[in-house]
Amino acid sequence: MTNPPQRRTATSRLPSMADVAALAKVSSQTVSRVVNGRTNVDDDTRERVLAAMDEAGYRPNSAARSLKSGQFRSIGVVLYTLSTFGNMRTLDAVTASSTLAGYSVTLLPVALDTENGVASAVTRLAEQAVDGIVIIMEAQVLDRASITLPTGVPVVIVDSDAGSQFTVVDTDQVDGARQATQHLLDLGHTTVWHVAGPDAAFSARRRAASWRATLEEAGTPVPPPLVGDWSGKSGYQHGLTLAARKDVTAIFAANDQMALGILRALHESGRAVPQSVSVIGFDDMPDADSFYPPLTTVHQDFGEVGRLCMVKLLELIESNRPHPGATLVPAHLVLRSSTASPSRRD
What we know:
By secondary structure, this protein is α/β, with parallel strands linked by helices. The chain has 11 helices and 12 strands. The protein has 3 domains: 17-60, 434 Repressor (Amino-terminal Domain), CATH 1.10.260; 72-169 and 302-323, 3-Layer(aba) Sandwich (Rossmann fold); 173-301, Response regulator (Rossmann fold, 3-Layer(aba) Sandwich). Helices cover 41% and strands 16% of the residues. The protein has a 6-stranded parallel β-sheet, sandwiched between helices. Strands 7-6-8-9-10-12 form a 6-stranded mixed β-sheet, with helices on both faces. Residues 4-11 have low confidence and may be disordered.
């Protein structure tokens, strides 16, 4: 009868392939064939080797096999912050898509959104044996031509203006903001006020530029934008300012969280939504339809962004050559109850 395997202590060594070979009474080469899924091993021998692996507590060294094959079935993700809805949903989508593709994910947050910070993070991930890297970085550091990423590792960037140099996947920020602004103009509002995201964020700058261009094309006045930080608190503070102005009838917030703060400020100031002021957001958070009133907003398909990140990254990994350019995922307007014609009354 085979003795049960001894519990390994902190000082004992891990079982080796040679240990498995000795238990199964086969060569180490045969064990290697079984571990690597080779077909030139008969069923009885394979079962004997698998039983010996279980008895010895042997676990194949996937890292060593990856080094031999040159593929690690792992990607790295670099990002600056998880505090924004967009980054959280994008990371979730990338992770889900990676899992479906059979890849594990290593997450590496960077403390400072600087060129050196990003390049250093990518270098560290490359040293940890990943096949490719996804960078989720709102800040405009990736928009500058001077940034240099380490060579030899495929990189896909989310939410950036670096499409001429790198492979980029993003929502169509320009068209999304155009749809939001045009919707309010089509309802009959004479102009649209904008609570923008932080100047350093690429998506915020693109949305603000598209809002301005849409108003200018319509020949309507362009009010000065109010710059927030993506938070409901900043939306609330700017909402109080806008609520005090009787000429404000339509507000486009650069994300749903700031729109929520704006709604609160308008309610507290006695400005009914949408009877007195229409409000529109951007993102289509899962709870946007539970705001009061339910929020009209621009939907971003973060799931598709994550899926395309993996599609593009796998193309880079397999081709081993760069494919610079931006792939844009369409945005679409979701109409709810927070927008109406300025002539509407209770």
